[in-house]
Amino acid sequence: MTTENIIEIRGLNSFYNTSQVLFDISFAIPRHQVSVIMGVSGCGKTTILRHLTGLKKTGAGQIIVDGGQDLGTFSETMLMQYRRRIGVLFQGGALFNSLSLAENIATPLKVHTKLADETIRIMGVMKLNMVGLDEFCDYMPSQLSGGMKKRAGLARALIMAPEILFVDEPSSGLDPITAAGLDRLIVELREAYGMTVLVVTHELESAFKIADRIVVMDKGKVMTAGSPEEIRNDKDPRVRQFLSREADPQIQAESFYERLLGGTAT
Amino acid sequence: MLNPIESLGAYALRQVFSAGRLGLFFIYTIRGIVMPPAKFWPTLKQIQFIGTKSFVVVGFTAAFTGMVLGLQGYHTLAKFGSEGLLGSAVGLSLVRELGPVLTALMVTGRAGSAMAAEIGIMRIEEQIDALECMAIDPFSYLITPRLIASIICLPLLIAFCDLIGILGGYVIGVGLLGVNQGAFWDGLTSSVDWSDLSMGFVKSFCFSVIIVCVCTYKGFYAGVDEGSFGPEQVGRATTDAVVISSIAVLIGDYVITSIML
């Protein structure tokens, strides 16, 4: 029986050495929807992503996958199987510097499948076409712009047709037009493939545009979670302040200057 | 008051942790031999990187070392009237000691530092994380081909170094300083025997393992302990890799020599 939520996080606490970065995080990621974890830099959202991909060991708390076992207790084989079902787009694209774009995208296929080279090449070109980079098949990553690297990284994350796509800060370092294009692509993935997508971002506009569900985080705690409309209409003053603070840098500037000049703390 | 003791204890714990992690690193690399992906083409690529590109550097080192040996050897042996033994002196010095050690040090400086830097950059750009998330074992994909390539290349480079070095000694000794040609070759062939060559081979195997493991280990964990990932960490990893690898080669040289002699 497939559960409604593909991943459920319960009571996750996370530490870097002795400093705690996540405090009792609990929320669910529903299937076939775009979920967005939103918060300012340093609130711990990338740490959650590292736990969900198994890059950081889960100590205190549980990450239940498919209503079954806790990811923190996965054996190495189970972790490998889990990772075959996911695709991850890292913040900088994380392309391999010594391989061309086509070779980068072909890497998972070459390792995990016994497909012929020609088939792999065709699949690679198709995926690059999907992200608009098919002319750049033979370019090296160092010859590409930041936006192109991200798109190539997305193509590589999608080549094994994952059930879940994790995206770390899709709009960071991108101009608004390219960022919007990436957002559109993420929504299309959900619509065309029914993919479950988890996006981590600090961009308010982007989050509200693509999300079916938003989790707002602040300083390692979940502030609130719900659909975009619910968040927008949330009466909680902290949530309102968070949403307005992002959109209005004027208020920040004055208090910043005051602190800088040794005045009253705000 | 207890701070110096605390930091000493923390330092000791860190070193033990590092040693254990290096041991695990080595085991995972060996395990990578039987894991996917296929190793043939990546290993070939690394053989070209480590072997072919180190050729010239090793050749130059060997030539001038051999020539210096010829020069110094001649003047030292001349005091005892034993110039005829120059062939033995040059041959034994190179085959037993200088060939393996100098080749290992040159390869460390050239290929070892490049390996540490390349893998270090992969670490700071999250490429190793990307490999893990694609269910690809990073040890099997990155490190094992380099280890196999090094084990293949280093003995060949050392043999090349020995050859060029002996020729260099010959050119100076016989060509320049007038040592008898027959005496040179006769001394060489009668003194250098299989036990000397096998010492060279054992050293080459051990040095290749040391160089690859230390340099790739340093690159692989660049910035991981501090939690910050930037060019400074890569630079430090590369420097540490070359220094530690060189020292380990020299220590290993003494250990192997004392066991096998």
Compute the number of helices of chain B: 9
Which value, in Å, is the CA radius of gyration of chain A? 20 Å
Distance between the termini of chain B: 51 Å
**SS elements, strand count of chain A:** 9
Helix fraction of chain A? 40-55%
Distance between the termini of chain A: 52 Å
Mean pLDDT of chain B: 92
Instruction: Tell me the strand percentage band of chain A.
Output: 15-25%
Assembly type:
heterodimer
> Biggest interface and its residues per chain?
A-B, 28 and 17 residues
What's the rounded overall pLDDT mean of chain A? 87
Looking at the structure, what is the overall shape of chain B? elongated
> Which CATH architecture of the largest domain in chain A would you pick?
3-Layer(aba) Sandwich
Total beta-strand segments of chain B: 0
Helix-strand category of chain B: mainly alpha
Number of domains of chain B: 1
Structural class of chain A: alpha/beta
- Low-pLDDT windows of residues of chain A: none
- The SSE string of chain B, one letter per element, is HHHHHHHHH
Please explain how this structure is put together.
The complex is a heterodimer of chains A (266) and B (261). With 266 residues, chain A is an alpha/beta fold. Chain A folds into two domains: 5-85 and 163-255, P-loop containing nucleotide triphosphate hydrolases (Rossmann fold); 94-161, no CATH class. Helix content of chain A is 41%, strand content 23%. Chain A contains ten helices and nine strands. Chain A has a six-stranded mixed beta sheet with strand order 5-6-7-3-8-9, with helices on both faces. A three-stranded antiparallel beta sheet of chain A has the order 2-1-4, covered by helices on one side. In chain A, β6, α6 and β7 (196-201) form a beta-alpha-beta unit. Chain A is globular and about 60 Å long. The mean pLDDT of chain A is 87. Chain B contains nine helices and no strands. Chain B is mainly α. In chain B, α4 (86-124) runs antiparallel to α9 (231-260) and α8 (194-220) packs antiparallel against α9. Chain B has one domain (39-260). The radius of gyration of chain B is 22 Å and the shape is elongated.
